Amino acid sequence: MLQKSQTNFITxxxxxxxxxxxxxxxxxxxxxxxxxxxxxxxxxxxxANPEMEMGGLYNCSxxxxxxxxxxELKPLTLYVKAGSEFPLIHAKILALELDxxxxxxxxxxxxxxxxxxxxxxxxxxxxxxxxxTDFLLQEYISSPFEAGLFYYRFPDKxxxxxxxxxxxxxxxxxxxxxxxLEELILRIPRARLVAKSLLQRGDMDPREILPEGSIKLLEPxxxxxxxxxxxxxxxxVNQDLLYFxxxxxxxxxxxxxxxxxxxxxxxxxxLKGNGIKILEVNGVNAEPAHIYDPKGKYQDAVKTLFRHWNxxxxxxxxxxxQGFSPATFRMALKNFREWQRH
Length: 342
Hints:
The protein is of the alpha+beta class. The protein has twelve helices and eleven strands.
């Protein structure tokens, strides 16, 4: 039998959704250079969302964007400065009536790095001690439906488009009454790839035997690199959703391109725009994440990325006509150094 590392390598090799980001984006590099030459700026993309740091490509504050979202459309959220004392944060949590479990996430993080579900005060203390950067404490929305909806609107248009919806299926295993939790995890390629981090968690007992038919959620964080399966939901786009996100986009100053990560009570509620909670607002760093559907083809994904960067170019061009300038090299370098520190 192949060793686990060899099996994982074959899984990654044969399923492009697991390939390194630089390989996926390599064909886009030359197109980006061409767009930069046409725009006469390597940072033309920053004009797509002028109010977001670097247009949302990097070093973008999640909290800053969430502040513009109406309170009824987002989870309770607390901003925490790095090095804050626990008693102060505990008092703020009580004042906000924020109950455990809560989600902790870096304010300027990406791709699920540093995101954790904290179940009690002890875990919060540990997170406070270990976090090198400012972070958010966010109400945990336990609704089972989670999605990412891509939206863009040209500056000279009143309504936009929804070119991408990704549906998220959280990583879980089903017991058979005989196998240990570790054995169940190692049987599922998607789970096996993150088995090391899963089995090292304090709330996981590798020797646990789940009753037959019992389902155990392994990862409550909906990120692809933490085992969540992304499915293409583009067929779900409808006029109710477009009305909802058209209206929402106007709450965000000069926002024209990005993805809303969200939860809703159910698929039906989502389709009607009911009960939606916006977890994050992403800018030009946001991918049309439906491309990572396991049934999707790499060449189709690349075509989609080309199309989206052309949209970024077109939006940036129109915004420059309206007086918004792209970032200078000095500004980009400053933001990059801040991002590296984070």
